[in-house]
Structure prediction request, 540 residues.
Amino acid sequence: MEYLLVHFPRDRRVLVNDEFNGRTEELIELEAGTHTIALGPPYNFTPAFKKIRLVDTSALTPREIDFDLAE
Amino acid sequence: MISLSKHSIAALAFLLLALAGCAHYPLNEPLATYQPDQGYRFPAVASGKNTDSLFVCLAFSGGGTRAASLAYGVMEKLRATKIVWKGVEKSLLDEVDCISSVSGGSFTAAYYGLFGDRLFSDFRPDFLERDIQGELTAKALSPLNWLRLASPNFSRIDLAAEHYDEVLFGGKTFGDLPAGRPFILLNATNLANGDGFEFTQDQFDFLGSDISRYPVARAVAASSAFPVLLSPLSLKNYPSPPGYRVPKDIANAQEDFYDNRRRYQWARNRASYLTQADRPYVHLMDGGLADNIGLRAIENAYLRSSGFIRTRLNEGEIEKFLIIVVNARTQDQDALSRSESPPGLFTVAYKTATISLDNFSFETIEFMKELQKARKQTQTTLSVCQQKLDACPGQPPLPKLAKSIEPFVVEVNFEALADPVQRQYFLGLPTTFALPREDIHALIEVGQTLLDADPVYQAVVESLRLPAP
Prediction:
């Protein structure tokens, strides 16, 4: 399995391929491959989503991605 | 007069042929509107006594009445196993969240899904102890059905589905399945590509079809349509309804040819139904051709980001995760080895199909065990590293998984029997829909004994045991 860590200034649920799969600042366990990552409401984050290729990670070296607070 | 008789005979023959041509299998219905949150999908909310924190899935293998009886024995044992979870006393059966099944195991799964505890009073006389095979043969040989069977659009599997509806399922459809748990996954095999086919609305979305009005008996018939003995069961593939959009994990997975071939193939097979013009019909056979254990659907739910197990793991809702595989596999190659003459065509065809099935089933179980083991190793690695970091003041903590889980995989398998005579007896039972009562009784008993004797099951039950009075 692969591991993803999503950063955002607020605690927020994380959407993986349109399904809730955990929260920000927590390790999210997923299978390898292409995934579309977004956050749950409120929609005050940017970008609206990130499409990533999740490969070659481990629980100690997860893929880390950031979302910013929208102005 | 003679001339008139000839005309009469010709007219009668024409009428009979016309009637034969009229016979058609019941068509699945088109989906009027696409509603991804509606229909027969894994229930979003646990209901009644069932929690998400103790998540239990059962996989029932194929093997005719042998498999159905073994699965029934395990269900009786689960019902008799009293536990305490989150301060509530209940049976372990109350915590079963999903049952995935193929072929013979699908009868037990579907009956429990539709009728709940009636399984324990009615299923033995209504199915296990009946000569279903003889009844199917009688139907096929009845002159009343000859004309219907002469139609190219009505075959033995449709007769079988009618019979299952009459004697077992009472005309119930997927819309009649209770909204709560367990979620029943009846599995068949698409004859065109050998891929598994799950009778759920998620799968029917790709056919542009509504599963809610589809008879459960037909799904069970497809799941148990053993090659040659029974004909394939057909579904119509409709154009997608307005507003339909391909699920994002399916769309993304089709880019994973190099990164994750399993996910890529899963997505490609499902998306292929969307080329409706090229594939206006789908022909299904025994689920055992794709996976004779019924574990594949559970594996998908564990791996895929849209899977009902994966989402609950990542959301931190599951604490204990138990999979019980009820494997009624037999082993009759010794009979082959005792013969000087090479086996005949039918035996070779049968063995060619079933040997690969059994090997594939073995790999599926081992893969699921490895996934669970990998999860435990990850949790241990994170825990040990965090302990070492704690010794270095000022270091930020490692990120954590939503929750550490306790995963367990149990396999009920005749090969676990220590007594060689008993083991050989069960491994030699045939795959048929007619077994003597003493065999059925023995299978029910041994299902309970094997489950009780499994060390992983014992550990699970011990951790959930009722406190001593």
The first strand of chain A starts at residue 2 and ends at 7.
